C-alpha cells in the first residue's frame, strides 16, 4: 500500500498544478501524511531547475503551516482528552515534568525532526502537546525546514540528476550525522 501511495505521489510531480499539489503534500505531511514532500520536490526540480528555489519555498511555507496544524492537534487533544485522563490517574504532575524536559530540548527536537528522516509530524504534535512556546516552535520549524528543502533544491539545481541518488538514499543520514556533531559540539563547549 505504501509503495502505491509513493508511486502516485511521484506521478503528481508531472501534473500542471504540481506546485499546488506540493503545497498540499507539504502541509499534510507535517501533521498526518506519511510521504515527505521531497518525493515531489526532487522530480519537479529535475524537470525545471530554474524553479528550484520557488519549489523549495512552497515546500517550506506549507510545511511550516502544516506544522502549526500538528501543533494545534497536540494542543487540542492534550487539553481535552490527555490531561483529564492523567489527572484522574494521579499522574498530572508526571506530564508537567515530561513537558518541561521536552521543552528544555524542544529546539533540538524540532530542528532534528525538521531536517532528518525522523517524522516531523511526531514533533509538531508533541510540541503542541507539551505546550512548547509557539514562537520557538515556529522559528525552529522555519530554520529546520529551510535547511532541508533549500539544501535539496541547491544540490539538485547545481548537480542535477547525478545527485538524485545521493539525496534519496543518503541525505537523511548526512543530516542526522550533522545534528549529532552539532549537539556534540555544544556539549563539549558547555562542559569543557
Structure description:
The structure is a single chain. By secondary structure, the protein is an all-alpha fold. 83% of the residues lie in helices and 0% in strands. It has one domain. It has nine helices and no strands. The model has no long low-confidence stretch (mean pLDDT 77).
Radius of gyration: 18 Å
Count of domains: 1
- How helix-rich are the residues, as a percent range? over 70%
- What's the total number of strands? 0
Mean pLDDT: 77
What's the story with the biggest beta sheet?
A: none
Secondary-structure element sequence?
A: HHHHHHHHH
Any idea what the shape is? globular
Query: Proportion of β residues?
Result: under 5%
Class by alpha and beta content: mainly alpha
Protein name: SNARE associated Golgi protein
Pfam family, one: VTT_dom
Domain VTT: 37-155
Transmembrane segments: 20-40, 52-78, 105-123, 135-159, 171-189
Describe this protein with a few key phrases.
transmembrane helix; 192 residues; mainly alpha; 0% strand
Would you kindly provide a brief summary of this structure?
Helices cover 83% and strands 0% of the residues.
